[in-house]
Specification:
Layout (H helix, E strand, L loop, with lengths): L8 E4 L4 H12 L4 E5 L2 H8 L6 E4 L5 H12 L7 E4 L14 H28 L3 E6 L12 H20 L5 E6 L3 E2 L3 H4 L14 E2 L1 H13 L4 E2 L8 H7 L2 H11 L1
Parallel strand pairs: 1-2, 1-4, 2-3, 4-5, 5-6, 6-9, 7-8
Helix pairs in contact: 1-7, 3-4, 4-5
The structure holds NADP nicotinamide-adenine-dinucleotide phosphate (NAP).
The site of NADP nicotinamide-adenine-dinucleotide phosphate (NAP) has 28 residues, from α1, β7 and α6.
Length: 256
């Protein structure tokens, strides 16, 4: 897609990985961004490369952080018309062995903050002349994933929730999409403790973070409800509907 229809974006989790690539793609296209994460030093380095970037340091696992970002989403000063809910993390291993704070922390970040910011953005965009919301989900949400039980469940939530909000906003010029990537090599693997487990995953299944970001931005500009980047994963939504659940969850468990 040549020019993007966005005037200003807010990206959560812009200090690394896919979120950082959203910022680079948009910055290079001349779209100013509000970049959000906890590591302010990284955000400032990123913002210095492009015109009009703003840095918002916030921890989206706590109420104060969510509130600060929600206020920026709603602000009518330099208003944003694209919200990218990208910040997220996972954990791996048997659920009962996962520290409960890490388990519930995923729900706080991947689900709770995303719902709160989407709520603020839909209301702000409906009151203005429209806008775009891109929620970063995962192919992990297409089935239950043993050894990533909470993570996959948060992503099932994100995809289902986003599809519903997409439908509610038909005809209101508020475009809402879920981006569902497969494997992307980022800090995610180290943070979620799956780096070693995924070492034998065929290279062909790995996507590039910048291509994933581009696919998401193109998809939300076109108001696609669900965007699955990469030919490798194109048939997955249909295959996962046709395959018995017990087969899907066993395959997912073997991968992780
Ligand atoms: N990589 C994959 O294979 C893959 C596949 C499918 C979907 N995804 C999804 O893609 C999204 C981005 O993941 P990634 O692969 O780019 O991971 P990443 O490289 O680990 O980046 C995660 C980003 O989230 C931010 N973040 C983490 N905790 C935060 C918190 N409490 N408050 C605010 N920001 C926080 C991090 O910044 P700070 O640490 O500076 O706060 C970082 O910028 C996630 O939603 C993930 O679930 C990833």
């Amino acid at each position: 897609m040549a020019g993007y229809p966005f005037r200003r974006a807010l990206i959560t989790g812009a200090s690394a990985g896919i979120g950082e690539q959203f910022a680079h793609v948009l910055g290079a296209a001349g779209v100013p961004c509000v970049v959000v994460a906890r590591r302010g030093d990284r955000l400032r380095e990123l913002a210095a490369r492009y015109n009009g970037f703003e840095v918002l340091e916030a921890d989206l696992q706590d109420d104060a952080g969510i509130e600060a970002v929600a206020m920026r989403v709603a602000s009518t000063v330099n208003p944003i018309d694209l919200l990218v809910n990208n910040a997220g993390f996972g954990t791996s291993g048997p659920f009962h062995e996962t520290a409960v704070e890490r388990a519930t922390g995923q729900i706080d970040l991947n689900v709770r903050s995303l719902v709160a910011l989407t709520h603020g953005a839909v209301n702000a965009f409906r009151a203005r002349d429209g806008g775009h919301i891109l929620n970063v989900s995962s192919v992990a949400g297409f089935q239950a994933s043993p050894n990533m039980a909470v993570y996959a469940a948060t992503k099932s939530f994100v995809t289902s929730f986003t599809e519903a909000v997409h439908e509610e906003n038909r005809g209101h010029n508020v475009k809402v999409s879920a981006l569902c990537p497969g494997f992307v090599s980022t800090e995610f693997q180290a943070v979620s403790g799956v780096a070693d487990r995924l070492m034998r995953t065929p290279r062909i299944l790995w996507l590039k973070a910048d291509e994933v970001a581009r696919a998401g931005l193109d998809g939300v500009a076109k108001n696609r409800a669900i965007v699955v980047p990469g030919w490798q994963y194109a048939t997955l939504p249909v295959v996962s509907k046709l395959t018995p659940r017990f087969v899907l969850r066993r395959i997912a468990g073997k991968i992780v």
